[in-house]
């Protein structure tokens, strides 16, 4: 790279990074401060230093700890959402400046009520089909204006584990099928999908571990339904009797409003799907949502700070050892039927604007570096863009 290229590059770096600035302390101020009082310089005998203890009032400590705590309703302990929320709590943690509390709840459908009514809940993991149901079936007014999305986390696939005598969805008609406990994704989304497909079953809602044990021994249950991110741990870890299978679920025009086509592969469930084969199924988007507080509300400031931390540290979540689902998350992706949280939209707009300004500034410098030579100007501009795309971002 010749001198002119180096000059353009240095100027570009200054434009992007700007002067260094000190950030807030990660752990906030100490609760107790000890200051040592040194003995007189010419004293013959050294006296031990005295500690002057300054206590922080308990009310001040309480306010400080609670100022930037974000409670996230995640769902059941065995589900994928609780793991992703826990990983966010580790990556986004910044002492008193940002603390995330993952909260185990009854499941994604219950999390709608948690987000609307439960104290201490700022965000929630819910399924993409719940707003339509709660708005129409439970008459929750303006639910699309009150609950907005931050990002889609992943797709939750429909899994139907069936006994050997059940070979298709039609074989389930009139038979007992378990959908896990009320409030879970399976208990909410599973019946909706089967009803839309015209598969009328005898619905039961007991804990899956109980139903699966009984299903192994007898035909008390023809199938159990999971709706969560693959692979589902109980379907992988447990050895299933010969003939147990995952049923194929067709995707058609009855499901296009909130659902997506998906597949389950042998690598996901080697004990249930033969090598080289796959099973067609349905997926529902799983969404990280927030209540849409007014701009001046203290809870809005808290959620906005969370969004800022998420954008700044998101690349860390997409690396090992964190859940592989993070690598498919796109913060700019849109979710049909949902409104994006204004704080997220503002962050996306800011990023686009900054990128445009940076490119414009670099091109202007290239013009100044090679006046009257469009070919050289373009070469300098592209040279920087190539370098920038290959550089490793700072951590």
The gist of it:
With 395 residues, the chain is of the alpha/beta class. The chain is built from twelve helices and twelve strands.
Query: Could you describe the largest sheet, including whether it forms a barrel?
Result: 10 strands, mixed
Q: What is the CATH fold-level name of the largest domain? A: D-Maltodextrin-Binding Protein, domain 2
**Helix-strand category:** alpha/beta
**Low-confidence regions:** 6-43, 391-395
The CATH architecture classification of the largest domain is 3-Layer(aba) Sandwich
Radius of gyration: 28 Å
Count of individual domains? 2
Large-scale geometry: globular
Mean pLDDT: 83
Question: Could you name the CATH class of the largest domain?
Answer: Alpha Beta
Search tags:
2 domains, 12 strands, about 400 residues, two-stranded antiparallel sheet, 10-stranded mixed sheet, alpha/beta, D-Maltodextrin-Binding Protein, domain 2
